[in-house]
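Hi everyone,

Forwarding the result from last night's run.
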Amino acid sequence: MAITKRPTGQVSNAVDVEALINKGGSVGRSAESLTPQEEQEKTALVNLRLPTSLLAEIDEVIKSKRVKIPRHTWLLEAIAERLTNEKEELVRRG
């Protein structure tokens, strides 16, 4: 590894610091300023406990698919499908 001396004086390709400071940037947004679409896209961390036998069944189904998908994706699809079915059932009943 080569060691060089620290540059003395002003570096020739240095950025105009004042211009950079004055340029500024965007201010971070708080959760209250999220659009409805962004609010919907927020995610929450959920710990899910499953019997190992059920997890093994899920993995077996995933492995048998022609196109492999992550277990997480499979679980999300299953939840979404169940929610759709439940909502349709509620509409039929009521």
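The helical segments are 17-23, 36-41, 52-64, 71-93.

Cheers,
N.
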